[in-house]
Amino acid sequence: MSMPELTAVICFANEGDEVARTVADIRRTAGDAVDIILINDASSDATDYEAVAARFDCRYLLHEAQVGPAHCRHKGVTWAKTDNVILLDAHMRFYANDWHTRVNDAISQAPDVLFCTRSKPLKTGGVPSGAHSGEGAHITLLADRFEASLKTEWNIAPLSGRGSDYVPCVLGGNYAVRRDYFLSIGGYRGLHRYGGEEPLISIKSWLAGGGCKVIRDVEIGHIYRGPSGAPWTDLIRYQHYNKLATATILMDETEQASYWQQLKAAPSGEKARDVFKSREPMLRQARKDFQKIQRRDMAYFCALNEAFRGGEPIYP
Q: Which of 11, 44, 125, 193 could form a disulfide with 39 if both were Cys (CB 3.0 to 4.6 A apart)?
């Protein structure tokens, strides 16, 4: 048996049978060519996730208290033994038997790029929803209110018509990258609990001199959540905080001030401010550390993001 070149990091909370379905699909299409790490973020349902890990030969980690997907994914990357990693949600479907080799090939050709694949929207049970597949995203950096700022917006126009597979932001619950590159740009450092992973890591990849790209010849199905939302608690507070964290790490003081001004009118704004105060020293250090490897400024990202929104192809 050859050693895997790719590690799939899957973090979850209270996903029930979907964890086994996702892992079974990976094994069906990729066999043992993908090392799988399951990180159980303090699930409280009755599912025996450890037994699932044993059945499908996965490494398994259990958190006694929830820390959120950003912490889980970052930990999973550090735990990986392979050069390449793919960060997955726990409700995915896989279709092509060689999807993992295409992911590895893409990373080897561009080791300083953050990738996602085409994302096929699925309904509960894994049935196609009929919606257009997504091919990356752009970011609304500053809207008219805090809740709409720093939000991702799907690109459903095929990239084949643009002449470039580069996108401002990855999206779709499947993010592939060279392990060393992810760690060198600080990964998800600064985020807390839930929300905002895609804008932070995508902007970082562009500012560090790489970029973001879609692997267009791989499509992975994703069961998108309904009205119940994500299984992590106190979502608004931490989603707001994570926007402040992203602005603090990546933006200048004038840009940061715009988000702070908007926060005054946002629900749970004071709670987000309290979280920020408790973590501010760490964020300031994360900013200093990122600036040591930063090669481009936010104006560069803003320009390419706007160009993409206008239908233009973008390149590093």
A: 11
